[in-house]
Write a structure and sequence with these properties.
By secondary structure, the chain is of the alpha/beta class. It folds into 3 domains: 14-280, Aldolase class I (TIM Barrel, Alpha-Beta Barrel), CATH 3.20.20.70; 301-385, Orthogonal Bundle (Recoverin, domain 1), CATH 1.10.238; 393-519, 2-Layer Sandwich (Double Stranded RNA Binding Domain). The chain has 17 helices and 16 strands. The chain has helices spanning 28-41, 55-67, 81-90, 107-114, 118-133, 151-163, 180-193, 213-222, 244-253, 255-258, 269-280, 301-309, 337-346, 353-370, 375-385, 432-443, 488-519, and strands spanning 6-7, 9-12, 45-46, 72-78, 97-104, 139-144, 168-173, 201-206, 227-230, 260-261, 393-401, 408-416, 421-429, 449-457, 466-474, 477-485. The strands form 4 sheets. It has an 8-stranded parallel beta barrel, surrounded by 9 helices.
Length: 520
């Protein structure tokens, strides 16, 4: 810890609360993979599931407890003896573990769900904390819906569980109802007024129903909470939970103002986000802070000009430090000549003033039609002006045969710049995209590892256009190609070839640089 900054422990509940997102179920074997990545990210505490809910869930929590020896593991349980037994047994092999007990505390929950009185709830909480304390030293207790429960009852309930051995008090904003000043005051008051409240640790668990989960979590930190419960990409029930990446980067970016820090390895933020998104089949909103596609991309000519001169003009964080591929300039109808010239130069195409003006005029026509101009489209415009800048490979023909009873078949014709003309390749695959990719791999030596594919609909109706974004890895470097077309299979093929062209041209520039250094 540096200076007097408070160390905020990050409690990740992606595998428990996050999985409760409608449609986000994770297979037990996938939980193990995600848990390993969370440990790599530097998560302090992982809540890997709800052991009593199913045998598969129990087995996953058990395996994670055995394998992850650097991270504290949480056994999640209702204030019910059977839940506690399952949680204790599932986590018994963890190097460090805790039991997390919860029971509803708001009148609306007590009257309509639990059908218990406040006195009955206090008695149950006491009994179950005391029972759990026989097995574990660390017990976290959550009065569910605490922000709608009334301060006096929350204090009474917290006092009861502290007296029975609870060591961490979590005050969840279960419905995302609280305002930041209200949530902060809840922590300050409980810490100050509950007997024994100054002897335990405090945790925040915020939902995002009103879009204030991160703001409320920061309010809790200011009020003395030293742990925040989060999910990757902010997934979770309804509108989700406090977003891990948003909270961590808010703390890091405004560390001096908050006097706080975390132990998160921010270089793994993007990889973790992508893994969770792919595993759960949950796409990210374009404007999602930190990890959304547009989070570090700029189309405005004024912004682009400033960024090219100094990144700090329009960015408060460094995306590359979080493992996010650098692609801050988006070429669209608001882009200026500086951005086009810079993008062309990144591909080794140095444009004269006359060439730049000619490209810019054609670029504006294309941008008005489809808003965004992809890199391969720009290079095609440049190639029309000079064969010197023609792309190494170009798709000239594609055919795909699909059916319900057979493997998909594809053939592609590709023109090579190096004077070898056009060649046609055929292949099969379990799907049309796989068949097409198998064809292209025969043609292009740089068609290395196909890492990721994103497909986006850019409009509606029968004439809708789809955008394909393909990422490949070649010689340890990532390259991304994009394409827009009414035919999504064709868009994928063009995007894949665009990424391969980048890899080929990058290798060529590196070779030229080495030759120049040797000659020098």
């Amino acid at each position: 810890m540096s200076g007097n900054k408070s160390r905020i422990h990050i409690f990740d509940t992606t595998l428990r609360d996050g999985e409760q997102s409608p449609g986000a179920s994770i297979k037990p074997e996938q939980k193990i993979i995600l848990a390993r990545q969370l440990e790599k990210l530097g998560i302090d505490v992982i809540e890997p599931g709800f052991p009593v809910s199913s045998s598969g869930e129990f087995a996953a929590v058990q395996q994670i407890s055995r394998e992850l020896q650097q991270t504290e593991i949480v056994g999640f349980a209702r204030a019910v003896r059977g839940d506690i037994d399952a949680a204790v047994k599932a986590t018994q092999d963890a190097a460090r573990r805790r039991l997390h007990l919860f029971i509803s505390s708001s009148d609306i929950h007590l009257n309509f769900q639990l059908r218990k009185t406040r006195d009955e709830v206090i008695a149950i909480a006491r009994q179950m904390v005391a029972y759990g304390k026989q097995f574990v030293d660390e017990i976290e207790f959550s009065p569910m819906d605490s922000t709608r429960s009334g301060m006096e009852f929350v204090i009474e309930l917290v006092e009861a569980v502290i007296s029975e051995g609870a060591t961490i008090i979590n005050l969840p904003d279960t419905l995302g109802y609280a305002l930041p000043e209200e949530y902060g005051e809840l922590f300050r008051t409980v810490r100050r007024q509950a007997r024994g409240g100054d002897k335990v640790k405090y945790s925040a668990h915020c939902h995002n129903d009103l879009g204030m989960a991160v703001a409320n979590s920061i309010a809790a930190i200011r009020a003395g909470a030293t742990q925040v419960e989060v999910t990757v990409n902010g997934i979770g029930e309804r509108a989700g939970n406090c977003s891990l990446e948003e909270l961590v980067m808010a703390i890091q970016t405004r560390s001096d103002a908050l006097q706080a820090e975390t132990g998160i390895n921010v270089e793994e933020v993007y990889n973790t986000s992508r893994l969770v998104s792919r595993t759960m089949n949950f796409p990210l909103a374009y404007n999602k802070p930190i990890v959304g596609r547009n989070a570090f991309q700029h189309e405005s000519g004024i912004h682009q000009d400033g960024l090219l001169k100094n990144r700090n003009t329009y960015e408060i964080m460094d995306p590359e430090a979080m493992g996010i591929p650098r692609s801050m300039i988006i070429l669209g109808k608001h882009s200026g000549r500086h951005a086009i010239k810079d993008r062309a130069a990144s591909y080794g195409a140095e444009l004269t003033a006359e060439q730049l003006e000619a490209v810019y005029e054609q670029f504006k026509v294309l941008a008005d039609e489809q808003k965004i101009v992809t890199d391969d489209q720009l290079m095609r415009l440049i190639g029309e002006l000079s064969s010197e800048h023609e792309e190494p490979y170009m798709l000239t023909e594609l055919q795909v045969l699909s059916g319900t009873q057979r493997a998909r078949m594809a053939s592609v014709t590709i023109r090579e710049r190096e004077g070898r003309g056009e060649r046609t390749y055929s292949a099969i695959g379990t799907g049309p995209i796989e068949a097409v990719i198998n064809c292209i791999r025969q043609a292009i030596p740089a068609a290395a590892e196909f890492e990721d594919l994103e497909l986006h609909s850019l409009s509606t109706g029968e004439d809708a256009k789809g955008e394909a974004v393909v990422t490949i890895i070649h010689c340890g470097q990532r390259y991304r190609g994009t394409s827009i077309h009414n035919d999504v299979i064709l868009a994928v093929a063009e995007a894949y070839i665009g990424a391969c062209n980048q890899a080929v041209m990058s290798a060529g520039r590196n070779e030229e640089r080495k030759k120049a250094e040797t000659a020098g």
